[in-house]
Design a protein that fits this description.
about 15% strand; alpha+beta; two-stranded antiparallel sheet
């Protein structure tokens, strides 16, 4: 099986599908079509390659020769941001990564892998020596806090905007545009992360009051019921799921740990320095 579809002898729909099937069977869910990355949902955890292998690629050709992955896409974008503009050509070119696909294709996970690599790459270029999703050695407290906030925006958005559908147990019921700002003047040949923002749109509001058979409301409601303490349940007057019509349909999902999701959601709120009264108002 070819890791780049452009290497196929005959570029046709049957050849493309056959190549994707062969790679999927070999636990290789990612395939290139030139600079595009096709991600086939493996439906199981697949270990990610080492980030340092993509960072250490000496050239674009060496990067393309590595196994296809979201890390390679993010690395190309990072390097493009470092390119000096041509004389008279204005400033550096902004970079965009579009993640698209049908429900259940793996867009949410792909986006998280891209964010994870970008934050790691910035920390590594700054002298980080350990792999940790929250902080690397050599980072300042402010840089580490910003990295953590970018990564921890994902569990917050997933809890409030994702739900189980017939086709996907963690389906995003909204669109989002994530913008990350860098400073290329901080040091030669590296970027400094200076800010980020997330714009959401087209939230499926009707799901709050009505779900199709076999589907659930938004994750946060079930996470509250599964993870809240007895005192919190009493204070917020939470009823058992069977007595709450908005969540009484499909309560539990084998692939989702709602109690762990609640703990992760609360931890992420802490990353954003949410005060106790703000959390109380939210719930």
């Amino acid at each position: 099986a070819e890791q780049d579809m452009c290497s196929l002898w005959h570029m046709s729909e049957p050849a493309v599908l056959s190549n994707l099937q062969l790679r999927f069977a070999a636990d290789q869910p990612y395939t290139y079509v030139a600079h595009l990355l096709i991600a086939v949902n493996p439906l199981k955890p697949i270990p990610d390659p080492a980030e340092v292998s993509y960072e250490g690629a000496a050239s674009s050709a060496a990067l393309a020769a590595l196994p296809p992955h979201q890390f390679a896409v993010a690395e190309r974008a990072y390097r493009a941001l470092l390119e000096q503009p041509a004389a008279g050509g204005g400033g550096r070119q902004d970079q965009s990564i579009v993640v698209s696909g049908e429900s259940g294709a793996g867009k949410t996970e792909s986006a998280k892998k891209l964010l994870r690599y970008i934050t790691w790459r910035v920390a590594s270029a700054a002298g980080g020596t350990t792999h940790d999703r929250r902080r690397s050695v050599g980072q300042t407290h402010a840089a580490a806090a910003l990295n953590a906030r970018i990564l921890d925006s994902s569990p917050i958005l997933e809890s409030l905007g994702n739900a189980k559908t017939v086709r996907n147990h963690n389906s995003s019921r909204f669109g989002k545009f994530t913008k990350i700002d860098f400073d290329a003047r901080a040091a030669p040949k590296r970027l400094r992360l200076v800010g980020a923002s997330v714009e959401t749109y087209l939230l499926e509001r009707s799901r709050v009051t009505r779900q199709a058979e076999g589907e659930r409301n938004y994750h946060i409601f079930y996470q509250l019921l599964a993870g809240a303490s007895a005192a919190e349940r009493q204070r917020w007057r939470l009823l058992p799921a069977a007595s709450a019509p908005y969540v009484s349909g499909c309560v539990s999902v084998p692939t989702l740990d709602d109690a762990a999701g609640y703990a992760e959601f609360c931890e992420a709120l802490g990353t954003f320095d949410a005060k106790a009264e703000e959390r109380e108002a939210l719930f």
